[in-house]
Design goal:
With about 325 residues, this protein is an alpha/beta fold. It has two domains: about 180 residues, Thiolase/Chalcone synthase (Peroxisomal Thiolase, Chain A, domain 1); about 150 residues, Peroxisomal Thiolase, Chain A, domain 1. The protein has nine helices and 13 strands. Helix 4 links the parallel strand 4 and strand 5.
Length: about 325
């Protein structure tokens, strides 16, 4: 038995914003962010919400699209998981609103999860394990969409201009084929747990605050090496433990937070650029959906086919990394 990623689709926001907007924005503050934005983060353009677009509208759109693409209806889904750092609504859960829009069956399990940017990858592992153990459930729909941009301080050059808006949806299906999650390992390092915080003083103070800065996402400088180096060691370990080498991997779908991180992993593992796709210059950084948009683009470009091995690596603020060895 295997859990097949049977279908994947992506929907992005409608407005395209180039680096020029952010370069001019920070020039007015006497800040030159070109090196950070282009060389470190690797940004060029990004898709941004129009006035009537939200994480919920994109989630509904991509969910309907992936179901159509898979020739399925909402009633064919047994589990629906929605991953986001901050949903459009806290109550009810966004998964319930998606349930309504997709007309899922009444006995479908629905829940939202927040593991920050690692959420969708963690959901993939957990739902794969759930489908294997469940006597009833056969299919799961996982949807991810983040909107960090609306939370951040426009004066913070570390993150303003970094994000883009795009939702991704995947369908997992219980099959008799040899496919799915092979191995997974996590790495938690809480030394930087105070570097990316929202709300900056907690929800207990959110409505008491009279300072607008305290209502924004707090993003302080931190060294990315503390999760890049462990990631490469975990990848090497997972490959060795499962009798594989880097040459057996068709694609490394890595976090799209910063091009600099991907380049460092390429260097440390001697991975070709063609096997570690970067799409952050087109989409911006999309948070929870970013490694799966990399997967989507790789499949679309013919770089991944059925039976190929894929490595996922991403991390959430705080921080928690996940490395996953996967057979597509």
């Amino acid at each position: 038995m295997g859990i097949k990623l049977s279908c994947i689709d992506v929907c992005h926001a409608s407005r395209v914003v180039s680096n020029d907007f952010y370069l001019k924005h920070f020039e007015q503050q006497n800040k030159n962010v070109e090196h950070l934005l282009v060389d470190v983060m690797g940004r060029d353009k990004r898709f941004m919400f129009d006035e009537d677009e939200t994480t919920l509208s994109l989630a509904v759109k991509v969910s309907k699209s992936v179901l159509d693409k898979a020739n399925l209806k909402g009633r064919d889904i047994d589990v629906l998981v929605y991953s986001s750092i901050l949903s459009e609504y806290i109550s009810p859960a966004t998964s319930i609103l998606l349930h309504k829009e997709l007309n899922l069956r009444t006995n479908a399990m629905c829940f939202d999860m927040n593991a920050n940017c690692a959420g969708m990858a963690i959901a993939l592992e957990h739902m794969s394990n759930y489908l294997i153990s469940s006597k009833r459930a056969k299919r799961a729909l996982i949807v991810g969409c983040d909107d960090d941009n609306s939370l951040i301080d426009s004066n913070n050059e570390l993150c303003y201009g970094n994000y883009g808006h795009a939702a991704c949806a995947i369908i997992l299906e219980k099959v008799d084929d040899d496919c799915g999650v092979i191995d997974t390992e996590y790495y938690v390092n809480t030394k930087v747990s105070d570097k990316v915080m929202y709300p900056s003083r907690g929800f207990s103070n959110f409505f008491k605050s009279k300072n607008i800065d305290e209502l924004c996402l707090k993003w302080l400088p931190f060294n990315s090496g503390f999760f890049v180096y462990p990631a490469t060691e975990i990848i090497k370990r997972l490959l060795k433990n499962n009798g594989l080498t880097r040459n057996d991997i068709s694609m490394f779908c890595l976090s799209q937070l910063a091009l600099k991180n991907i380049k460092k992993i390429r260097e440390l593992m001697n991975i070709d650029e063609g096997k570690s796709i970067y799409i952050g210059d087109k989409y911006g950084y999309t948070g929870t959906s970013s490694p799966f948009i990399a997967l989507y683009e790789s499949i679309k470009q013919g770089k991944i086919k059925r039976g190929d091995y894929v490595v996922f690596w991403t991390f959430g603020a705080g921080s928690q990394s996940i490395v996953m060895l996967y057979k597509y």
